[in-house]
């Protein structure tokens, strides 16, 4: 498979055992080819830290996530502009549009649990 960017929904499910998709995401991650590299957008990092921050362990969760992926991609100018175009064309929420843009610009396959995002992002893998 190669380069995989994890959507916020996948990242949250992977890191919170109480999430209803935790087992599914864990299965995908454990059964995926060992040569896969996993990436996230800083948008997904932010979204996944909200709960941990409320519980007082945001810094620990940040370190766990950052150390478990190959890279956290920033929202650079090219991604911001492309993300706005995706939003204008699809009505996806801006965070999803930016994650989609990041995956496309960085040459990654997008893994998501979000049906709407998967339906508008060509080549996305909808985990189900």
CATH topological fold name: Rossmann fold
Per CATH, the superfamily is 5'-nuclease
Strand content: 5-15%
Number of helices: 7
Mean pLDDT: 95
**Termini separation:** 18 Å
Description:
The protein has 128 residues and is α/β, with parallel strands linked by helices. The protein has one domain (3-126): 5'-nuclease (Rossmann fold). Helices cover 58% and strands 14% of the residues. It has 7 helices and 5 strands; from the N terminus they run E-H-H-E-H-H-E-H-H-E-H-E. It has helices at 8-15, 22-31, 42-54, 58-68, 77-90, 94-105, 115-120; strands spanning 3-6, 37-41, 71-73, 109-112, 125-126. It has a 5-stranded parallel beta sheet. Helix 1 packs across helix 2, helix 1 (8-15) packs parallel to helix 3 and helix 3 (42-54) packs antiparallel against helix 4. It is globular. The protein starts with a strand and ends with a strand.
Give the gist of this structure.
By secondary structure, this protein is α/β, with parallel strands linked by helices. It has helices spanning 8-15, 22-31, 42-54, 58-68, 77-90, 94-105, 115-120; strands at 3-6, 37-41, 71-73, 109-112, 125-126. It has a five-stranded parallel beta sheet.
